[in-house]
Amino acid sequence: MKVTEHIKEAGGKTLFSFEIIPPKKGNNIQELYNNIDPLMEFNPPFIDVTTSREEYVYIEKNGLLDRKITRMRPGTVGICAAIKHKYDVDTVPHVLCGGFTKEETEYLLVDCHYLGIENVMALRGDAMSHQKYFQASKGGHTYAVELVDQIQNLNRGKYLHDVIDANHKADFCIGVAGYPEKHLEAPSLQSDLKRLKEKVDAGADYVVTQMFFDNQKFFEFVEEAKKIGINVPIIPGIKPVAVKRHLQLLPQVFKIDLPQDLISAVEKCKDNKQVRQVGVEWCIQQSKELLAAGVPVLHYYSMGKSSNIHKIAKEIF
Length: 317
Ligand SMILES: Cc1cc2nc3c(=O)[nH]c(=O)nc-3n(C[C@H](O)[C@H](O)[C@H](O)COP(=O)(O)OP(=O)(O)OC[C@H]3O[C@@H](n4cnc5c(N)ncnc54)[C@H](O)[C@@H]3O)c2cc1C
What we know:
- It is a single chain.
- By secondary structure, the chain is of the alpha/beta class.
- Helices cover 40% and strands 17% of the residues.
- The protein is built from eleven helices and eleven strands.
- It has helices at 3-10, 30-36, 76-87, 102-114, 144-155, 189-202, 215-227, 246-254, 260-267, 272-292, 307-316; strands spanning 15-20, 46-49, 55-61, 64-70, 90-96, 119-123, 173-178, 206-209, 234-235, 237-238, 297-301.
- α5 runs parallel beside α6 (189-202) and α9 packs antiparallel against α10.
- The two termini are 21 Å apart.
- The model has no long low-confidence stretch (mean pLDDT 96).
- Flavin-adenine dinucleotide binds at residues 50-53, 94, 96, 123-126, 143-145, 177, 183, 185-186, 192, 195, 199, 208, 210, 237.
């Protein structure tokens, strides 16, 4: 089923969902299952699986460094199919502009369609680690809106280069990213919201937000989005702080603010066990308030580890 159909069917009840990351290649998928298993108790109607960009690795050979390009966490679509099969739950592969040609994207979408995957998250992706700014891959898309267009074309039965006369249409439900504290490259929140509106106008069916720790920012974002005519469901994405280093890491990577009360509580912790407890409690309070506000789904960034998400969901669902 589509994410939007799940939301409709819930009839105003807030759903539980979460995001996982594929294991590093060379690892067993069992550890991922071990983390998903406990969360199935809360009946997620869908699970998101991220896609990571390719990166450069340097291999020493005869005293020289040989640069190779590799994807450390491949297998997004395979994992989606495996989870769908094992747990009978819908899965949402994240599809990126960065690192893919339009043709590769088309093949990936065709695979998804054959596998019965009905939802995809259309994302631009970040710059590669050695790049200062995002650069489109040769033959790839520059912005997520173009990816939404390509997916919508498949929904109309229009494939690249018009080489076939398709008699069968895909029917993907498309999610896109939204940023309550604006995307790091956007000149202003209003300009970023306009870009979000472009993605919705191109055919995005729902929005999932970047993580935030102050619900007020989310509520204001939803309000502003509605004002400019964004009427699709907006799903809050949230994550519990888990280690002290998150105080620096999260603002640095995601360009988000942490509330002073949360910072003070984390700073008082003697070790990361205490930090996890603070993070869980903060996330429970956030979840309760979002639930009371009637959000369609509470979507948790699990980063592949489920124990803290389980503690939170136990209090909420
Ligand atoms: C819910 C969620 C899931 C994510 N999952 C992944 C994942 O699995 N893998 C991964 O690598 N990353 C993931 N990301 C991170 C995401 O790829 C980055 O935040 C990326 O930098 C932006 O992606 P986007 O789809 O929002 O890009 P876009 O919507 O293309 O926007 C990127 C920037 O360009 C601006 N912009 C958009 N259109 C135009 C235009 N036409 N002209 C000029 N400027 C424009 C926007 O304002 C914004 O600043 C995720 C983010 C979120 C919120």
